[in-house]
Design goal:
heterodimer, A: mainly beta, 7-stranded mixed β-sheet, 4-stranded antiparallel β-sheet, 11 strands, globular, B: 106 residues, 6-stranded mixed β-sheet, 5-stranded antiparallel β-sheet
Chain lengths: 114, 106
């Protein structure tokens, strides 16, 4: 079974721009979660989608948004980019999205904001 | 609020020198504790899920155990290829610890 895929793998943007990242979950998985990883803050939860509905949200500003499509694929959008948004953005998928559901991570998208 | 603390932050071992990594957690009703391994520049790779105190799981040189307040990842006779950052996390909307950077010298 193919793993979680994320596109693009690398991205360079300038302050003030917006960016959209894409995630395709493992086949059959219906839950997709997004995380931000930085050297200073570690891995932080952004939000989780299940059956096209946002089910859980971390403590990030409204500039960070996401959506999930009927085929479980998900996109994440960051508007008005700031230098501090430079990070590795990780997507993880799970079968059912419950609290005990194991999540499997993709390779990440490395975003650099100049 | 869920909290996860990992120690030590970094650990250097000689090849074959067994040791343990610690993950302390504070949650209101544990529903799952997860261990991941992460290599530089890559996404975390799933290792284990533990659900209740007393549970143990093993995979090759790794063994994870769980108590009501902490989890341990025991590494037996490590090899250089075990060098990575090991992360533990709790619950959906996973709350992660800061990780333990493990370096195994040949």
């Amino acid at each position: 079974k193919a793993g979680v895929t994320q596109t693009p793998r690398y991205l360079i943007k300038t302050r003030g721009q917006q960016v959209t990242l894409s995630c395709s979950p493992i086949s059959g998985h219906r839950s997709v979660s997004w995380y931000q990883q930085t050297p200073g803050q570690g891995l932080q939860f952004l939000f989780e989608y299940f059956s096209e509905t946002q089910r859980n949200k971390g403590n990030f500003p409204g500039r960070f948004s996401g959506r999930q499509f009927s085929n479980s694929r998900s996109e994440m959008n960051v508007s008005t980019l700031e230098l501090g948004d430079s990070a590795l953005y990780l997507c993880a998928s799970g079968e059912a999205g419950g609290s005990a559901d194991t999540q499997y991570f993709g390779p990440g998208t490395r975003l650099t904001v100049l | 609020e869920d909290q996860v603390t990992q120690s030590p932050e970094a650990l250097r071992l000689q090849e074959g020198e067994s040791s343990s990594l610690n993950c302390s957690y504070t949650v209101s009703g544990l529903r799952g504790l997860f261990w991941y391994r992460q290599d530089p520049g890559k996404g975390p790779e799933f290792l284990f899920t533990l659900y209740s105190a007393g549970e143990e799981k093993e995979k090759e040189r790794l063994k994870a155990t769980l108590t009501k307040k902490e989890s341990f990842l025991h590494i037996t006779a490590p090899k250089p290829e075990d060098s990575a950052t090991y992360l533990c996390a709790v619950h959906r909307g996973l709350t992660f610890g800061g990780g333990t950077r493990l370096m195994v010298k040949p």
